[in-house]
Design goal:
With 170 residues, the chain is α+β, with helices and mostly antiparallel strands. It has five helices and eight strands, in the order αββββαααβββαβ. A hairpin with a 2-residue loop joins strand 1 and strand 2.
Length: 170
């Protein structure tokens, strides 16, 4: 009888605690906020992946070099104006672009990744989903966006509004 009464009191306490906004998250180890599990179809470049359903995902908060000589590369590096694709492929910018793509491919090689979509700005002007991409490596969650920064293959690209602050990832 005592055990039954104790269980009822425990359940009532727990229900009241959660109804009043209580949480057990303080007792649990914190981890990334994982919203969606998705399968990567391909990596376009260091900061853009394509997932199932042909959805393009832009890694929020980071900017990697372009793998092709295009208007974005020239805007970022005006000295490239008039260069050929072959000349661009001889630059450190191209080398850094390919290293970024390779790192993103390596981290996403299992195919399954998890997204934390930016709640403040879920899409960019090109209809790409803006998200932090997470992968599990040796039992630990790895922020792919942050790894690109740490490796030196990306620059911070903080465009408010965004729920993420990439300056904290370094």
């Amino acid at each position: 009888m005592f055990l039954a009464v104790a269980c009822v009191i425990a359940v009532m306490f727990g229900a009241t605690y959660f109804a009043l906004g209580g949480s057990t998250s303080e007792a649990l180890p914190s981890g990334p906020h994982l919203e969606r599990s998705v399968v990567v179809d391909r990596v376009i470049d260091g900061d853009t992946i394509v997932i199932e359903g042909d959805e393009h995902v832009r890694l929020v908060g980071v900017d990697t070099e372009e793998k092709e000589l295009n208007s974005y590369a020239i805007e970022k590096h005006p000295e490239l104006e008039g260069a050929t694709e072959e000349e661009y492929e001889q630059t450190s910018y191209y080398e850094r672009a390919m290293a970024a793509k390779s790192l993103t491919e390596d981290l996403c090689q299992s195919g399954e990744v998890w997204l934390d979509v930016d709640d403040f700005e879920p899409q960019d002007g090109h209809d790409r989903t803006l998200a932090v991409v997470y992968v599990k490596v040796d039992g630990s969650w790895v922020n792919v966006n942050a790894e690109l920064l740490r490796a030196g293959y990306a620059d911070v690209l903080f465009i408010p509004p965004s729920e993420f602050n990439p300056y904290k990832w370094r």
